[in-house]
Design a protein that fits this description.
Exhibits a very high intrinsic GTPase hydrolysis rate. Involved in the addition of a carboxymethylaminomethyl (cmnm) group at the wobble position (U34) of certain tRNAs, forming tRNA-cmnm(5)s(2)U34. By secondary structure, the protein is α/β, with parallel strands linked by helices. 46% of the residues lie in helices and 18% in strands. The longest helix has 25 residues, at 162-186. The structure holds ligand FFO, guanosine-5'-triphosphate and magnesium ion (MG).
């Protein structure tokens, strides 16, 4: 698909569909300037084709057949290779309504040799034409989707190439080693410098260490990019919905003193000091004959299985009950923070019992109706998210599963190479492992990634990007 369509001129609406001050249609490819010239009348009557690159030109969009004025607009041409895609680009900025945007886009497709762009196709061209690498292309989408300042910092570090250059620093020395071994294999009788296997093993070991440092940061990076799915669970009336509202700073969920108030689960994003939490408030878990409540309870149980983190709420004002014991059973071996709520009131919960049951889980004491303990809870969650992370520059964090899988594979190939060298296995086999490691690192930045992987990545982009 890549090879066939790369020469087409493509167009899409680049701004969200809805009502906005301004909307942008982006056209990229060899026919872009000529086609826009046929529907755009500049106020000074000069064609865009005769204008300097990167200048804004005011005029009107006119249907060439009916002579109807569709909208007034500002057009900017950016001649390749000095453009987002490295091709000729025209951006048409019209008023930000559905109708002007759609009419102008259909007009372009109708009169010109232009087709609708696939999701992510502009950025894919920026990648295929060599302006950015694959990690940078993925960062474009991460910027659009960023939910907190910390997520944005990771993504913009990736876009600026900080992460990619880190990968290259790890990867380039491998190629030197491969070349060296290959020379020795291909020209055994010639005077290729003697290779000291011990020294090579040390070097590979250093590269492995660097990969492991990156992998240790992968969990943090993934959470900052994708969010931490956090389920609030507990028996009815412990204050789950009150905690959700507190973390969101809004009255999102209904709170009453009637046990069984929340029936359906509620999902919302909260920014916890930079950590994007996808919080799910669930129905209080208890035995019930109520048909609707039962479904809610089943959903709550399923979130215990799905969530990255569980906030298990207990009511500090009440002794342990059967429903609490059941919850303790359900959260066994999960990633849990025990939260003892209502600490603004007199406490009668046997905390030692909970500690014994959930040894290993951290405990926070809060009052969901005030700010009591919320800071403590935040710190506990932050500690969990940043635990094991040894990379302190957000721009260097591994931030998606594709990248961490590639790093893991590279690391395994390097371990195999060391083992082979250690066992005096022939060098051509060592080279195979070194090359595989080099290729997996290349997948991250797109040097060696297959067409399928590339297509799959860009298909997840939005239209117009
Ligand atoms: N109007 C508009 N705003 C936008 C974009 C866009 O495409 N259009 N962007 C799109 O996502 C982002 C900016 N990213 C961009 C990155 C590179 C180039 C570009 O033309 N680069 C050329 C050099 C430009 C020059 O020489 O002035 C290059 O790198 O060769 C443009 C936008 C955000 N804002
Ligand atoms: N004093 C005090 N009251 C609280 C606190 N947290 C919640 N409450 C009260 O406890 C009652 C239940 O709160 P909810 O947030 O609805 O409890 P829930 O766990 O969501 O209950 P269900 O949806 O029924 O499972 C309400 O009357 C809240 O005002 C707290 O920290 N201190
Ligand atoms: Mg509730």
């Amino acid at each position: 698909m890549i090879a066939k369509d790369i020469n087409d001129t493509i167009a899409a609406i680049a701004t969200p569909l809805g009502e906005g001050g301004i909307g942008i249609i982006r056209v990229s490819g060899i026919n872009s300037i000529e086609t826009v010239d046929r529907i755009f009348a500049a106020i000074n009557k000069r064609a865009l084709a005769d204008r300097h690159s990167h200048r804004a030109v005011y005029g009107k969009i006119i249907d060439p057949k009916t002579k109807d004025i569709i909208d007034e607009a500002i057009c900017i041409i950016m001649r390749g290779p000095h453009s987002y895609t490295k091709e000729d680009i025209v951006e048409i900025q019209c008023h930000g309504g559905m109708l002007p945007l759609r009419r102008i886009l259909s007009l372009l497709i109708e009169i010109g040799e232009i087709r609708l762009a696939a999701p992510g196709e502009f950025t894919k061209r920026a990648f295929l034409n060599g302006r950015i690498d694959l990690a940078q292309a993925q960062a474009v989408m991460d910027i659009i989707k960023a939910k907190t300042d910390a997520s944005l910092k990771v993504a913009s570090g990736h876009l600026s190439g900080c992460f990619s250059s880190h990968i290259r620093q790890i990867r380039d020395p491998l190629l030197e080693m491969i070349a060296h071994y290959e020379a020795a294999i291909d020209f055994p009788e010639e005077e290729v410098d003697e290779i000291d296997n011990i020294q090579v093993m040390e070097k590979i070991g250093e590269i492995k260490d660097k990969i492991n440092v990156m992998l240790a940061s992968a969990n943090t990076g993934r959470i900052l990019s994708e969010g931490l799915v956090t389920a609030i669970v507990g028996k009815p009336n412990v204050g789950k919905s009150s905690l959700l509202n507190r973390l969101l700073h809004s009255e999102r969920a209904i709170v009453t003193d009637v046990p069984g108030t929340t029936r359906d689960s509620i999902e919302e994003y909260a920014d916890m000091e930079g950590i994007p939490l996808k919080i799910i408030d669930t129905a209080g878990i208890r035995h019930t004959e109520d048909k609707v409540e039962k479904i809610g309870v089943d959903r709550a149980r399923s979130y215990i299985e799905k969530a990255d983190l569980i906030l298990a709420l207990f009511d500090g004002t009440r002794p342990i009950e059967d429903d609490d014991r059941k919850i303790i059973k359900l959260i066994e071996e999960k990633n849990v923070v025990i939260v003892i709520n209502k600490n603004d009131l007199e406490q009668s919960l046997d905390e030692r019992w909970i500690r014994k049951q959930c040894s290993g889980s951290e405990i926070a004491h809060i009052s969901a109706v005030s700010d009591n303990g919320i800071k403590e809870l935040t710190e506990v969650i932050k500690k969990k998210v940043y635990a094991g992370n040894v990379v302190y520059n957000e721009g260097e964090l591994v931030n998606n599963v594709r990248q961490s899988e590639a790093l893991k594979k590279a690391e395994r190939h390097l371990s195999d190479a060391i083992k082979s060298l250690d066992n005096d296995i022939p060098e051509d086999l060592v080279v195979i492992d070194l090359r595989s490691a080099w290729e997996r690192l290349g997948d991250i930045i797109g040097d060696t990634a297959s067409e399928d992987i590339i297509d799959e990545i860009f298909s997840r982009f939005c239209i117009g990007k």
